[in-house]
Amino acid sequence: MLNFHTRPPLESSRSAFRLLRTPAKGKLYLLITSDNLLGCFTHFYAGRTVPCTGDKCEACQAGASARWHGYVAAIEQKTNEPIVFELTAAAAESLAAYRAKHGTLRGCDILATRVSPRPNARVRLQMRPHDLSRTDLPEPLNLRAALCHIWGIPTTETQVGHDPDARQTITHRGTGLPRDRGNGRQPAATPDTPDQNA
Questions:
Q1: Is 12 helix (H, G, I), strand (E, B) or coil?
Q2: Which secondary structure element, helix H or strand E, spans residue 145, and what is its range?
Q3: Cα-Cα-Cα-Cα dihedral sign, residues 37, 43, 48, 51
Q4: Closest listed residue to residue 85, CA positions, set 13, 146, 135
Q5: Alpha-carbon gap, residue 23 to 21, rounded angstroms
Q6: SS3 (DSSP) at 138
Q7: Smaller CB count within 10 Å for the chain: N or C?
Q8: pLDDT tens digit string along 55-112?
Q9: What residues does each domain of the chain span?
Q10: Against a cut of 0.70, is the pTM above it?
Q11: pLDDT per residue over 5-39, tens digit each?
């Protein structure tokens, strides 16, 4: 017998999520659904952003510089689509300060813009608590699983550790990610410099 359904299977909504960055032009309106940041060092390698996977990282061995990026689960408010939002370390500091003040990132409204139309210009975040009395905030997507799906890494090959400054870092096969990556060089400086608007 042929069975029709009025909605897609639950698994189809979990398999792929868009990863968004702050656009060079325009604005991005988000509502954060995750409680905290999740972050790791990444490389721009072979034409795409890939996570640093530790001591045997192919990108490190090729001499690619590393940068820390943070990620949160959010809803794009114009489309109501669940997404993964990527932030530079400087912009993530603003979210870390917000979380320290409010105890969670969940329910934080964000307006993300860049200070100039350059694609790598500094990110500016404006944040405020959302009025949750008028919103049925969905459960956050599994951020670690979503990132692993995007990068093609099994979740069984990752773990979440806590740095002394309370940032979370994805690690690979139990290998920590020190601040100095890539043949003894410091991670490349990000164009985003910390300030009160980052």
A1: helix
A2: helix 143-151
A3: negative
A4: 146
A5: 6
A6: coil
A7: N
A8: 788 999 999 988 899 999 999 999 989 999 999 998 999 999 999 999 999 999 999 9
A9: 16-129+140-172
A10: yes
A11: 777 665 454 456 789 999 999 999 999 999 999 99
